[in-house]
Amino acid sequence: MVSPPHEAMHRIFQHDPGLFSRVSRFLGVDIPKPTGATALPTDLTEASPVERRVDTLLRFETAEQGPFLLAIEAQGKKDPDKPASWAYYVAYLWTKYRLPTALLVVCQDYATAKWAQQPVTSGPAQMPALTLRPLVVGPHNMPVITEPDEARADLILASLAAITHAAEPVVNAILKALSTALRDAPEDIADPIVEFTAHGLGNRPAKHLWRNLVATDLSFYKSYISEEIRDEGREQGRAQQGAQDVLLVLEQRGLDVSDEVRTRITECGDPEVLRHWLARAVTAPSAEAVFEGGE
After folding, report:
1. What stretch of H or E contains 57?
2. What is the pLDDT of residues 35-71, one digit of tens each?
3. Rounded to an integer, what distance in angstroms lies between the CA atom of residue 74 and that of residue 203?
4. Residue (of 145, 144, 156) closest to 185 by Cα position
5. CA distances from residue 162 to 145, 196, 211 in whole angstroms, order as listed
6. Among 4, 43, 86, 89, which residue is least crowded by beta carbons within 10 Å?
C-alpha cells in the first residue's frame, strides 16, 4: 500500500508541473520553463501479466527544446529491484511516445538519495548498452527555506522543501516559514499546499508541529487537514470538561482524591470513559471505586 508521503512526493509535480523547471536549477541541469504540460496515463503495462506503473508521468512542451517526457518516482528506501524497473519505464516510454524521456526520483533521506542517483548499466562494464542516470531530489540538494518571504515567493517549492527535509531538524523552521507565508494566500491556493505538506510529513514528529501551525496560523481555512485538527481540538475540549466534571463530583461529595486518581482522570482523553466515570462518581464509596467496572 502506498503511503501518504509517497503520494505527496510525486503528486506535487502534477499539481504544479512548472515546479520541475524551478527545481532543475538545484540539480545542475538547465530545464527551460514549459510552455505547456500534460499529465499522461501512468500505466505502463504491456500484454504480459506483470503490471508496471510509474508514479507520475508528465509531457512538457518547451520553446527551446521541444517536447519531452518526465517520469517521476517517489522512493522511500533503497530497493535493489527499482533500477531495473526504472530502466524499463524510460525505455518503454521512449519507445511508445518517441520522445526524449527523463526520470526524476524524489527521496526524503540522504542514504536513499545517494543510492538512487548512482548510474546503473544494463550490460557488462565493457558493454554498457543502456545506462540509467536518474535526476534525484532530496534533502541533499533541495533548498532550506526558513524565511516567510522566500516561502511566499514559491509556495509549492517551499512545500517540497518541507517534504524532502521531513526527517531533518530544520523541517520545523521550514514549516513555520511556510505557514506564515500561507496566511496571505487565497484559500484555493493554500488548501492543496496544506494537504501536500501534511501527507508528505507522514507519521514523522514534524506532522504534529504542522497540525498545530495549521490550527493556529491557518484557522480560517476549511481544508481536510484543518477540519481534522479542529475536530481533534473539540474532542480534547470535551475530554477536559469531562475530567473536570468527574473531579468536581468527587470533591463535592467530600471524597479524598489522591494524586494518582486525579492524574488518571485528567489524562483520560476518551469522553465515553469519562461519562462512565462521572456516573460512577455519584454513588462510588471512594474515588478509586470510580474505575471499577472497567473502562
Report:
1. strand 56-61
2. 888 888 887 766 555 557 889 999 999 888 899 999 9
3. 17
4. 156
5. 8, 10, 14
6. 43
d(CA 67, CA 61): 4
- Coil, helix or strand for 210? helix
With respect to residue 229, please indicate whether it lies within any of the assigned structural domains.
no
CA distances from 245 to 45, 156, 257, 278, 289 (A): 61, 46, 13, 7, 16
Do residues 258 and 287 lie in contact, with contact meaning Cβ atoms separated by under 8 Å? yes
- Is 218 part of a structural domain of the chain? yes
Global pTM value: 0.68
Q: Are residues 164 and 94 in the same domain?
A: no
Cα(198)–Cα(207) distance, integer angstroms: 7
**Where residue 12 falls among pLDDT bands split at 50, 70, 90?**
confident
* CA 225/CA 192 separation, integer angstroms: 10
The rounded distance, in Å, linking the Cα atoms of 269 and 282 is: 21
